[in-house]
Design a protein that fits this description.
three-stranded parallel beta sheet; 3 strands; globular
């Protein structure tokens, strides 16, 4: 969360890819989006993201893990 806030404040990135199911990240996600940073939530197999995380992300990307 702290890294997301720093990157957002410095406009160091255009997008942040986040692999988590921890809703403690929501305040940092909100800050990033308010700063114009796109937040991409990465979804791993057998791990459904919470509706709250989905609501505060711009995109959702499902990936296969481990890669065959």
């Amino acid at each position: 969360g702290l890294d997301m806030a720093i990157f957002s404040a410095n406009r160091a990135v255009e997008a942040i890819a986040l692999v988590t199911n921890d809703t403690d990240c929501i305040p940092a996600m909100k800050h990033a989006r308010r700063s114009g940073i796109q937040v991409v939530l990465i979804e791993l197999p057998n791990c459904k993201p919470t509706p709250d995380l989905l609501a505060h992300s711009d995109f959702r990307r499902k990936i296969a893990w481990p890669v065959p």
